[in-house]
């Protein structure tokens, strides 16, 4: 697809990977971008940083269904149609499941999964008015391989993968392409409280993700050959991967305890 002149709605475009995706979109000639995020100052800063962009903003929480209704209605009222929907906003709260607060469990599912499904539902009618529409969903490497102490986050991201496959097949007659990306550990605010090392840069992840969108790739998987091999092992001999992961059980538990970005 050609991005020049396209109208794009992105969730969580104010920081991290989402903001770097805006940089990529602008490089490819996008001028109309709608963003939903919770922090007013970060949204304001986008307008100052990207002077060439006509932004539509909704300050709100994607976990709130009214905010999703508001952004999709705003796009319909102002633009009449939509070319690209990017479901990027995400949160994480790691640690043993029995130590997670009920609120963190509900909020991770609401932000990482329910919001993706609901905003996509609201956007389908306006995407259908575009001649060349696409959806980009941000899953995670943990959506391919369920790691201990990330049971809730990993479940939401695996569901994003499954949703991407299902909705792609459902929208086939409408020629709306669906790309799902699976970042590995990426150096953003989300990872400040993690102990991850050798992280990808958000610029790299955004560039490859937008390239996947343009080329209508179904899946963009980060983490190199090692991630692909682990994913294969996870499917073919999960007990072998269980044994490998068990070797670093205590280390993984310890590292997860502080990791939270909600
Ligand atoms: N960083 C990684 O290692 C990594 C790895 C795999 C997958 N991912 C996925 O990549 C995506 C982007 O993550 P990131 O690393 O760029 O995170 P980030 O730097 O923490 O940025 C998250 C973005 O989402 C927005 N957001 C979060 N919760 C929201 C809510 N309830 N309502 C509206 N907006 C919300 C934030 O804006 P406000 O705070 O202003 O609302 C911000 O713009 C996420 O889906 C994440 O799960 C990240």
TrEMBL record:
The keyword Disulfide bond does not apply. This is SDR family NAD(P)-dependent oxidoreductase. InterPro entries: KR_dom, NAD(P)-bd_dom_sf, Sc_DH/Rdtase_CS, SDR_fam. Belongs to the short-chain dehydrogenases/reductases (SDR) family. Residues 6-188 form the Ketoreductase domain. PANTHER family: DEHYDROGENASE/REDUCTASE SDR FAMILY MEMBER 7B, DEHYDROGENASE_REDUCTASE SDR FAMILY MEMBER 7B. CDD domains: SDR_c (cd05233). Keywords: Oxidoreductase. SUPFAM superfamilies: NAD(P)-binding Rossmann-fold domains. One of its GO terms (molecular function) is oxidoreductase activity. Its EC number is 1.-.-.-.
